[in-house]
Amino acid sequence: MSGQEHFDALIAVDARVEPRDWMPDGYRKTLVRQISQHAHSEIIGMQPEANWITRAPSLKRKAILMAKVQDEAGHGLYLYSAAETLGTPRDQMTADLIAGKARYSSIFNYPTLTWADMGAIGWLVDGAAICNQVPLCRASYGPYGRAMVRICKEESFHQRQGFEILLELANGTPAQREMAQDAINRWYAPSLMMFGPPDEDSPNSRQSMAWNIKRFSNDELRSRFVGMIVEQVKVLGLTLPDADIRFNEETGRWEHGPLDWDEFSEVLAGRGPCNSQRLARRREAHEDGAWVREAAAAYAARQAGRSSA
Ligand code: 3HC
Question: What predicted TM-score, i.e. pTM, was given to this entire model?
Answer without folding.
Answer: 0.96
